[in-house]
What we know:
Elements: E1 3-7, E2 12-18, E3 23-30, H1 35-50, E4 59-63, H2 69-86, E5 90-93, H3 95-103, E6 109-116, E7 119-127, E8 130-131, E9 136-138, H4 144-147, E10 152-153, H5 155-159, E11 167-168, H6 175-187
Parallel strand pairs: 1-4, 4-5, 6-10, 10-11
Antiparallel strand pairs: 1-2, 2-3, 6-7, 7-8, 7-9
Amino acid sequence: xxxxxxxxxxxxxxxxxxxxxxxxxxxxxxxxxxxxxxxxxxxxxxxxxxxxxxxxxxxxxxxxxxxxxxxxxxxxxxxxxxxxxxxxxxxxxxxxxxxxxxxxxxxxxxxxxxxxxxxxxxxxxxxxxxxxxxxxxxxxxxxxxxxxxxxxxxxxxxxxxxxxxxxxxxxxxxxxxxxxxxxxxxxxxxxxxxxxxxxxxxxxxxxxxxxxxxxxx
Length: 217
């Protein structure tokens, strides 16, 4: 097994290689505006670090969000393209699950990433491998009672200390954690879902109201 894992659902552009036993190379850079520019060089970098070629990869793992439309599409389209070119399966993993795996907490906790618009993408977890609720997008104040008293990880939790007073790192997902989680699930015989994006809301860019289409006669 050689899994190439990547995620662009948060400001982090993160890539890792997992050989079925552990992560053998990884790269993470935080820049919310340069996902498309940074992703392919990061993939080249981890392959070079591991001394491997792209055609050695036997599977692709990609974070499916939730996340902003533009950043999320960069990772998903890259994963789909590589999977098609290499003839290997592409596995989708919830980005929040990757953050939970990196947190490695034993008791109940919350993962929350920044959804902008003063909202967070979030879910509750029983432990670092078990999600209790479906990913959702909400204003922090609206979920305060549901997350009260629970530890929290992620950039969204760190942004809103009134709702998440027990927030701490990791701030962003790492492809290394995503790869470890996917490898564990595959080794256990689980079938990982197809890489379908979790947008949870409409894109920021929308057609203006009263927009008139002008076509030649």
